[in-house]
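$ fold --in a.seq
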Amino acid sequence: MKPESIVFAAAGVVFGVIVGYVMGAQDARTQTPAMPAQAGAPSATASQGVPPPRPLDEGRASTLEATAAQDPQNARVRVELGDLYFDAERPADAIRWYEAALTINPRDDNVSTDLGVSYYYTGDADRALKQFEHSLSVDPTHSKTLLNIGVVRAFGKQDLKGAVEVWEALLKVSPASEEGQAARKALENLKAAHPEIGGGAAAGGAPRGGA
């Protein structure tokens, strides 16, 4: 999974501790550095430890596109193209290839979440959330999807209570994961800034019913 850093830092609530956190699931395929969010998400600066986007490897893109044209059922190469364009901060191009990959393998929850993050980066929060719903239909406990839903609810929809709800759900199913730890810290900061939000799981303690 590729799309990486939906950066927490906006809307009057600073989540700088999670800047650069890998928000997609491409790290399950290959480890790559985080990059700043694009059109629909807050950006991070070099001073926050987030490297600049990679320039598009035109030669690699051409080779992969030729392979894709020759092999219309090759989902893997289409995912690679999506990753390549996402790295270059070209989410509209990434969307094209992630959608093509999902047409071949619609139950790939990692790619589905990549696609949702890409939609968010083009400013379409509603479409992102709808795509995340598809990811959860494949795996209701997909931790990176749950983390991203909270981000999009908080920053794309200004639905802080909705963000709290989904991050607390993440803490119940995957409290020890990187995503769970990120959600816990986000909840601590969010509730500190907006105590009226409240919520079920204690910000710094064990969530109810945690796995």
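$ fold --in b.seq
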Amino acid sequence: MKNKLLILTVVSLLVLPNLSFAESATSTNVREGNGVKTEEKRETIRDEIEAKKESLKNSIEERKQNAVDKIEERVNKFVQNMIKRYNAATNRLEILGNRIDSRIARIKVAGIDVQEAEKLLVEARAKIATAKANVAKINLESSASSSLIASTTKEIVKKNFETTKTQMEKAKEDIKEAHAALIEVVKSLKPGDNKLKNSSAATVASSTATTTEAED
């Protein structure tokens, strides 16, 4: 009996340290496993936060760009409307110049000196051509600016418009000068018109007198 107790005691002493070591190892593994999982969770949370920040940043940038695009669209629409008005004005000036040219030709046929009017008309037509060229330049510059608008800023849009605005003002002044030049041509033709009218009136009077004499 004593031998059995002795054997059991010895076995217990041998087994208990192993059980204790196993428990300790298991506890350590659990802690390490929990630590890895915790770190993975932290990394996942950090990634999610970064993703949300990036998404928010992209959303803000997109809203800003949309606002800039709308401004650019309004500016382009305004510029194109002004270009149409300027083109219509220069076309009217060209038509008026052609009418004045025909008027000069009629007066010239009557033997009246129209050299001054012809000279002024050449100058006026040169100014009309300059105005048309400057209007076309506005269109080219505006189109070039629009093609570079992708991902631009409000400051760039404003700078481009200031340049276009300066060109528009120059074209407007050129149109005014061309119109004023045509008015000068018309003024120079008034003496010739009066002579032509007087000549026509004299011709009619002479014809009437001749007819009257023939009837008598």
